[in-house]
Design goal:
Length: 344
Amino acid sequence: MESKNNNNPTDKSGVILLYISSVLFISILSSSCSTEQGQSKAPINITLAAEMSLLPATVWVAEQKGFFKKYNITLNVLEYDSGRNALESMLKDPSINISTVAQTPVVFNSFNNEPYVIFATMAYSLDDTKLLARKDHGIEKPEDLKGKKIGATVRSTGHYFLEGFLNHYNYNLQDITLIDVNASQLKSKLESGELDAITSWEPHISNAEKSLGKEKLTLLISPTPFRKDFFFTAHKDYAKKHSDRLERFLSALIDAEDYISENPEDAQIIISQRLGVKLDLIKKIWKSFTFDVSLEQSILVNLENEALWATAFFKNTKTVPNYLDFIDIKPLSKVKPHSVNLIY
């Protein structure tokens, strides 16, 4: 009996160790197989036109952590100061395969029946877009904007945000002078006094605040949540012929999404370095963003609402498109099916 009792602990320990070893082996094998499956595919080159902001965070993390390499992708990033310019460059240049863009440029270009599709949302924010005004130009509250020169990147989210902001205070774009300015130039024109105020997104707003000093500025935030969706778009022909490439691209981004969720502090450092902005700024605005590779029904509602607004820009000569024609669910449905919730 003594011998039997003395051997029991050893037997159980051996079983436990064998079980743990088996689990670790299966885990390592699974990880190895996943990587090998990505690398066993033929190498591909993808050219991405990307806005240099926090919104494409999954791209910056996937770059730095080697997730594109994992799926045998060589990614060439072309840098832009706005999603509007990134999308329009892609539409003009067939060598650019994918662009990052928010909903407003998607809407404006959809009226021309441009040949592109949204194949995933990368992120969204409820308060990324803001209005920054100069106190020494007599602006301390929203009503002071009447008659002032306000800079915005026309046909961008800043443009749409501005009209909604003004409407909340019972006036509109006819009550101000709207100046079309590329996002990267807004800060300098506000500094020089050419503009009384600007509307834009991060990091442009915080950079302008830092440059002029908060004591000289009035920061005006939307009184109601303003949702900004940010998309990956591709040439329609490219998406049709190379759905498998978009699947691999999205797989790398999903790995990055998981990494951001599990390692937010490290992700913030990666993004700070990639964008060349202070880590304090990234931390300050971090909670404003949700990084989620998906295709939700809400994006259709937002696109249609903006399209109704945009028809006035065209003096009601345009009709609202069917935005289902501008969405390709196939790539994301293959790699993250539970994240596709569109009603057809």
